[in-house]
Each structure stands twice: as structure tokens, then as C-alpha cells.
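=== Structural record ===
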Amino acid sequence: MLTEQQKDTIKATAPVLREHGTTITTRFYQLLFEKHPKLLNIFNQANQKQGKQQRALANSIIASAEHIDQLESIMPVVEQIAHKHRSLGIKPEHYPIVGENLLIAIKDVLGDAATDDIMQAWEDAYQVIADIFISVEADLYEETEQQPGGWKDFKPFYIAGKVVESDVITSFYLKPVDEQPLPTFEPGQYISVKLDIPSETYTNIRQYSLSYKPNQSYFRISVKREDEHDPNGVVSNYLHNEASVGDLLDVSAPAGEFTLDTNSTKPLVLLAGGVGITPLINMLHTVVEQQPSRPVSIVHAVRNGDVQAFEQELTDLVLDHQHVNIYTILSHPTADDEANKHYHQKGFITYDWMKDHLPMDEADFYFCGPKPFMEAVMNHLNQHGVTEDRLNFEFFGPQEELETVQ
């Protein structure tokens, strides 16, 4: 337990951490990987190179400092991170390693400002926070392993099908090698895929949203091919260009907190930017099956029709379910798009367009996509006065902060 004095000490360091947080976490990861290079098999090196993981960890540390006297307020974030940790295979034995190097990084960056009292308070605080994560993750591991069809850590799968959805997105149908039934999952969840790529020194693990409804004999993931020079492109380019039907890969059980509330009867609005369509089309399939009378609007904002995935799949859902409305927004339509009027809005999603076409006053909103798209959507919804309890969103990758206009 932390003393009141220690809590006050931790809270007093929050402004300093906000100023130097990313510098501390950058130093932390440098130390961590120098001393424990095997952990490079777990951590996403693309996120490291882009600084995303450093910023995400810094934000978590700052939030912990600011709420050290009421840690229950950050439990939603803890749950979200714990799901990611469970899907990656993070275990209790990793936490002392992280703590040791984090404290060294704090001391290295803050220097003489990191007094003995401050360092002792942070050492004790880290243990409290680590114990919370370990407890939450232990429950997730147990729940995952004991559910029907569940398993611990990773399990061998093979690629049973590979379907091109657009110029940049390909779907992979994954089946377990042991041919056992798969566990069910919540629409919106993801799996971790672990690959040993011949050209790479370390194992690569990536999370991909499940893009088709649960209770099938397979998992479907739909992967966007990133630019081959982008650090994120290592796995996606391998899957697109090298992986073939029959190839083996290791897969985690489904995880994630960005899930559809099928108990709600409010109109549903799904807003996707680019490959952000993948968890949302899963939600759409599920809601039309389980709540066929629930009004649904799905908006897909993409560059043009060549890169738009699932057009026919979405069209078929509209034909079969009268309560579903689908809108396409193209920022840079091709000549064919223009000739065929292949969109409902040209340019970008706007406040006026949303107000004119969507049930803004009563719907539940779920959105996913690139950060600029999500910030635009969030600002439009805030401008309209949509309350926080009706907002649901997810980042692909480490949790970031959405910059909103006040």
C-alpha cells in the first residue's frame, strides 16, 4: 500500500513526467532491449520506430501519476491494455524486468531531480500498478483458456483461403491445425498473429481485427498492405506477397474491449476510415443477424473505389436487410467512380453531412480508422453534443489521444 505522502509525491511528479515522458519511455525501451533482446520477439518494432509505443507508455505513466489516489478511474484503460497483453503473451515475470528498467530510465532522464524519496515512491507505486495488471491479466488468461474451444497463448493455424478485397486489402481465412471448434468472440475483437519471417531477425506479432461474425469454422482477418518502406509493412507485405494457402502461423484467442453492445436497441452508426472497416463489418454482420429490426447506418470513407474493400458484401447486406443504410465517401474518386456515381459524398466527412444523413440525436456511434479521420469524427460528434456514453472507438496500434476542438 502507498502512504498518503507517497501518493502526494507521485502526483507532484506528474507535470515533470508530462514534460519529459516520451524521453523517459524512449530511454526505457533502449535499456529494456539492450538487456533483454529476446523481448524484441514480443514488442512491435514498427511502433517502436515510429515512436507510437513510447508515446502510449508515457501517456499511461502520466495517467497513473495523476490518478494514483483513485486508480479505479483508469481501469477502462487497464482493461484495454490487459487484453493486448494477454493476446501478446505478456506474463507476470515480465513486470519486474519492466519496473527495473523504467526506474533506471526515470533516474537517467530526471537526474538530481529524482530524489531518493521520489524514486522510492515510484518503485512502490509501480508495484501497486503492476499487481493490478497481473491480476486483471490472470483473469483474462483463465477465462480465455477455459471457454469452449479456448486455449492459452498461441495455437497453430493454417491459411485456408486468401481473397483479394481491393487493391490494398486481402482477407485471410484461418483454420486451426487441430480442427477443433473455435471459441466464440465479441464483434469488434481482434486476434494476434505470430510469424517467423525468413528475412527478419525476430518474430513479428501483429493484431488484426476479426472481419467476419463469430461462430464459424474459421477466423477471417483482412489485412491492408502497407508501403514496403513503412516499418509497418514488414508483416502485411509478407502476408500479401509471400504467404500462401496452406501456410502455417500461430494465432492467439480473440481479445479486445472495442465490442458491439447487442443489448442496446438504439439506432447504430458505424463510421469507418479505410481499413477501419474490418471490425465494423463484423459488427454489421452480427447486428443484422441478432437484431434484424435495429436501424443501422454504416459509413465507409476511403480514397477511391479501387481501394475500397467489401463493396459487394455490403451491397448484399443492404439488399437483404431493409433497416441497413450504407454510405460511401470518396476523398479522391477515380474517373470510373465519377462515371458510375460510385459515392454518396465527395471529399471528406463533414459535420453538415453527418447531421443531414445520420440519426445524431439518438444513435450509438462506433468508429475506427486513421487518426485524422477519427479526430474529425470525434469533433463533429462533440460539436453536435453526442454524449460520451454513446461514443465507442478504437485505434489500430497503441492507444493515442484524439485532439479535439473545445
User: Anything to note?
Assistant: The longest strand covers residues 154-164. The chain has a mean pLDDT of 92. The radius of gyration is 22 Å.
